[in-house]
Amino acid sequence: xxxxxxxxxxxFLPLLSLLSSSSSSSPAASAxxxxxxxxxxxDNIESRRNHLYPEILRDEAVARLYQLGKVSDSDSHLERTxxxxxxxxxxxxxxxxxxxxxxxxxxxxxxxxxGRFQGSNASAKALLIGSHLDTVxxxxxxxxxxxxxxxxxxxxxxxxxxxxxxxxxxxxVIAFSDEEGVRFQSTFLGSAAVAGVLPVSALQITDKSxxxxxxxxxxxxxxxxxxxxxxxxxxxxxxxxxxELHIEQGPVLEFLGFPLGVVKGxxxxxxxxxxxxxxxxxxxTVPMSLRQDPMAASAELIMQLESLCxxxxxxxxxxxxxxxxxxxSLSNSLVCTVGEISTWPxxxxxxxxxxNFTVDLRAMDDLGRQAILYELSNRMYQICDRRxxxxxxxxxxxxxxxxxxxxxxxxxxFAANSALKRMTGEIVEEVPVLMSGAGxxxxxxSHLTKVGMLFVRCRGGISHSPAEHxxxxxIWAAGLAILAFLETxx
Length: 490
Description:
The chain is an alpha+beta fold. The chain is built from 16 helices and 16 strands.
């Protein structure tokens, strides 16, 4: 989900002021063009390009992204949800690419696709690299897929130059089966299982057709019972760390003129399902004054949500300095969205009997997020009571904010700088450090091991849309950064 431009700029204002003193023609801003080179430099530039593996890290990676982007359950748009036919085809394609990179590949009992190379010391703690293969409805082709393909491209480079066997620890790439939570409204099914935080009860969650997670797995020849789900958890002592590369899904990197950024943390998030029940009736015969209309009530509830999230300071008040800091954080980072709404019986001449809608609420401050949820619930119940409407609020998903590991963050920053230096031939400015308002598999994996993330610039900050776009050269930079990080593991 995209944060508003104002919220993003408020969060990163210190960073913007820090960078404002740099030249507008900074190496990062003009990177990847290889332009402005005189004839005497052409041989050197061509030599440098050959050592940047463009045929694998750019050309092949771009082709694979577009190929994977055509694997969809819909002919009119990209849609690939958990355990759908398209998700299975995508998994098979990724498995082939894992084997092409020299990895041993397999699919686990929640549908995650794994590819592993043991390195020179198979008993050492493993580096895990991952992202997700599922998409939202009417998606772009880079969200999730870029992280998987960039990692495989970097490993393929090591295979092609004979360096893969020099990895001092096992490296495993995981394409997680569900991060978006579209089908079952429960995010991180794939990564939460690997991290050991997916409860057995999750197997009984149903989709809109009444199919459970367990049934969806069984339909696709993946027999998963409670015991096998528990067996998916990785031993924390066998894992060294987890890194994830992902498109930014926001406009900050483009604003700053940098292709890559390092993520210092991820906002906490909560998903709610609100059910509003009233009195179903004839649209033409029930007077307005006698109606118990759940649709009108839902409209007021949604407007209350918007008011609260636009101006939390007007609804929450505390005395301590600590609480003042929390309110400031909420003012800069809180975002709330109603993304789905349905009615029953959904006919133009019938007053609905029931309305369901979702709420997605995110904030950098966990305590502040809980305070907002408490205030929101109280005010929603008050509105329903006043209207003589029944109202229930269910928490479908909760994830606390996650801080990236300082060691991994430093290493990823070095890798990003190294990649940009290789591409420009110059020492570039330090890459930006950002917070993520969107959730990622790293949130679930943080329960298993230390995590770190890299962001890649996307045009206009647009994501979860067919207009989502990453330039070919920024894809190249992403692959080079993962390659540089892997070279530190030799």
